[in-house]
Specification:
Elements (H helix, E strand, L loop, with lengths): L10 H13 L6 H13 L4 E5 L5 H10 L4 E6 L2 H13 L6 E5 L2 H7 L4 E6 L6 H8 L3 E10 L18 H15 L4 E6 L5 E6 L2
Parallel strand pairs: 1-2, 1-4, 2-3, 4-5
Antiparallel strand pairs: 5-7, 6-7
């Protein structure tokens, strides 16, 4: 299926994907990335907030979607990831629409004013329920909440202490998913791509 996305094979994107493979960094990958861009474009997104940005791989796709007048607010606790994102997205011609904050992602959302067209969650899984509660009222009607890694039954959520995966993290993701599904202000579905992508549309 990824072969159908060859039109995105620009050199900077390939470099980012190569770094993710070489270092084991959990970038969302090509299929999820293209999905993020499509979702953002589908709601006419001009203002996106990312909870967890790493070195800018998912921001690459959102920055394409929002256009030169848009904003992608990125968060990560690593200044080195900010440096890498500035390099990659700068060379891709996308850095001018990125606002990168080094520090806690949830605090970053709290301290950034206004509403968003899309909030994307890809932080520590134990914090997913808190991320949802913080984000749900910050998204405009017609906007989207999107979260990666939400299929609890996938290999990612099989408890394995040696890999840093705990049963508590899986339970947190499950709670996150159930709270979204039960929220009358949102219409949601889990897209079973990779480790699952939650897509929730605010309808009221």
């Amino acid at each position: 299926m990824a072969d159908l996305l060859g039109r995105h094979d620009d050199p900077v994107l390939l470099e980012m994907e190569a770094e993710a493979r070489a270092t084991g960094f959990p970038a969302v990958g090509r299929l999820v990335g293209a999905t993020l861009e499509l979702l953002a474009r589908s709601v006419g997104a001009r203002r996106v907030f990312e909870l967890g940005s790493g070195f800018g791989y998912s921001a690459y796709w959102f920055a394409r979607a929002v256009g030169p007048e848009g904003e992608v607010h990125c968060t990560d606790d690593s200044s080195e990831n900010e440096r890498k994102a500035a390099d990659y997205l700068g060379r891709a011609g996308l850095w001018d629409r990125v606002r990168y904050r080094v520090g806690d992602a949830l605090e970053g959302l709290r301290s950034t004013s206004g509403t968003f067209d899309v909030v994307f969650c890809d932080i520590d899984k134990a914090a997913y329920p808190q991320a949802w509660e913080l984000a749900r009222d910050r998204i405009r009607v017609g906007g989207l909440y999107v979260a990666d890694n939400v299929i609890r039954s996938s290999a990612m959520w099989v408890p394995d202490p040696s890999a840093g995966r705990s049963a508590a993290e899986g339970e947190a993701v499950d709670l996150h998913n159930r709270r979204i599904a039960e929220d009358a202000h949102y219409l949601s579905v889990i897209v079973p791509t990779r480790d699952g992508v939650m897509v929730a549309l605010r309808i009221a």
